[in-house]
Amino acid sequence: MGLAIAGCASHKKTAKQDPFAGQGSPIYPGSGPVPWGGGRYHVGKPYQVAGVWFEPKEQPRYDKKGLASWYGEDFNRRKTSNGEWFDMTRLTAAHATLPLPSYAKVTNLENGREVVVRINDRGPFVDTRVMDLSKAAADELGYLNQGTTKVRVQYLGPAPLNDNGGRHLIAMNTELERGTSTRNLIAAADRRRGKQGSDNVQVAAVKPVKKAAPAIVETVAYQPPPEPEAPALAAPSGEVSYYVQLGSFGDGGNAARARDQFSSAWPVQFIELSGAAGPVYRVRLGPISDADDAQTALVDAQAAGFTDARLIKTEDVQAALQ
User: For 47-192, which CATH superfamily applies?
Assistant: First the structure.
């Protein structure tokens, strides 16, 4: 994985070899997180490494078992083969011949753990290894400490070039956890991420509707203790609305980041509670009128790390305030 290739690449040795990430590849010039995506769709021509030829191509039925390794710090924040930037904390991988970027389901055959990864790099080129996974993906599969493990790699299909914040990849793994079949993972993730909300935050009170509502901000006064439930929007007569409560935050920046993480997928309430000890910020996903959609939002929240997220109804919030 760590070589910089130059020379010939086709069997006739007339084409340049495919570049791939290594210690000599460019380092991301910024100081913040590296961008998601930003590369190109790439298959490439045949190329040679250490006397072995590799032939990238579309392989819709690719399903192979073999050894997987992982890579991390030495290549972190460097450019990958298709022009993206490698981040060892994301669920990505390198493969010698599959299209870039694409999705693959990887199963650790030693413990049964599985994950969907975004393939955006070339490699590995050691022994008979079939895949090089990021440090985060190796950790997810439970072989970080042992270095390599036997895996099954199943190609799923092309990945979006620009996955905003990794939301589509999160949706893929959420569907995997829900037991969605391999052939339906991408379609299910597309439907999940198709639930679009607004990225704007408006200081206003709006009634819940079946379509995604814009994020809102409410300011209410309270006298602790105890901390009250923030008021919910009134639902139309005979209609129940659902909310996923992510949590309460003492830091407004953390609350804003939680809001922004979901604002393109779900309607979001950003509620500021002012009290004697200072402001408290509460973030909820909703209102959501469909019960199945509400369950999906809850799974999204828990998969994103909000393990204490809980589902509540409008009537439950109103009852708590009475």
Answer: RlpA-like domain (2.40.40.10)
